[in-house]
Amino acid sequence: MKTVHKLLLLSVIALFMVRCKNETHSSPTTISENKVRYAKGFSIVNYDGYSLVTVQNPWPKATQTYTYILQEKNSRVPDSLQKHTIIPIPVKSMVVTSTTHIPSLEMLDAEKTLVGFPHLDYISSEKVRARIEAGKVKELGMNQSLNTEVLLDLQPDVIIGYGIDNNNPTLDNLQKSGLKVMLNGDWNEETPLGKAEWIKFFGALLGKQKEATAIFTTIEKEYLKTIQIAKNAQNKPTVLAGDMYEDRWYLPKGTSWGSLLLKEAQSHYLWTETSGTGSLSLSFETVFDKAKNADIWITSGQFSSLREMTDKNPHYAQFDAFRNKNVYSFSGKKGKTGGILYYELAPNRPDIVLKDIVKILHPELLPTYQPFFFEKLK
Hints:
This protein has about 375 residues and is α/β, with parallel strands linked by helices. About 35% of the residues lie in helices and about 20% in strands. The chain contains 14 helices and 20 strands. The strands form 5 sheets. The chain has a 5-stranded mixed β-sheet, covered by helices on one side. It has a 5-stranded parallel β-sheet with strand order 8-7-6-11-12, covered by helices on one side. The chain has a 5-stranded mixed β-sheet with strand order 16-13-18-19-20, with helices on one face. A hairpin with a 2-residue loop joins strand 2 and strand 3. Helix 7 (about 200-205) runs antiparallel to helix 8 (about 210-230).
């Protein structure tokens, strides 16, 4: 009888220990809650031995949430999370698919992890271009039709993709081939600081979360400081943006990140009442009727001189901003193969963009500052 009681007691103790073990494993200890403040498209929560990264808005009106597990060496991921894509970190090699991803790697001193990119000519970064010329970054074709053969040969630790909708068969096929794919939605963020905060996404992959947070904090402080400086402006110049492409005039919608930058710089952007994060597509006549007397004109990266503008469309000369030579462009800074640096770096450095615009609109507020991206066209 004593033996039976002893066996029963041992069974209960063993069952209790197993239950405790299972409960501990299913309820991991949270080391840090989500530290993402401005970006709406992703979150990071750190646990003992791994991080859980959630991407909510990789494209407009996305309905699916994507969860990724970043696993540290010699750590265990709970069984309940095994269904998600698990990526060992720190990542040693990666493929990115947008030039806006490049600055995060460079700021984190991790450009050497880049092994492939679609359409290499778009990249402006001097450090990455040097690696391209040395044959260390491979050409992958176009974003919507990545070269699968090259990718399978490279076997990167992760491919950072993006999409404009839920239809990207190339990324689906790469995943079926056993490659790890993560979606990045930095381009879909509505605010300048929201876009810039995606450096934390790359910091998590590279095992450099502290460094990424420190870099972003510096950008945030400079941005917020410039907002306060701009509030001392005595007036709000009217601003026209964009220009004609083929038969349509493209300019930022009123709730886009570009429009918000103009607002923070204390200007009156003439289409600020519109909504949306993308671009408006208008006729020349519609734009001219509303903006012919605008004080400042900030064009796209198409033109490097006033002459180029009128060669393309003589009617540009009818705008007051053109006649008064108050036209600005970011076309001046280009990479060796023609990529425009603004498209690559500006979303990551809104602090610099905002200072540039404040200098254009209110030069007296930043008397010693020299614009980095923008220059007045001659």
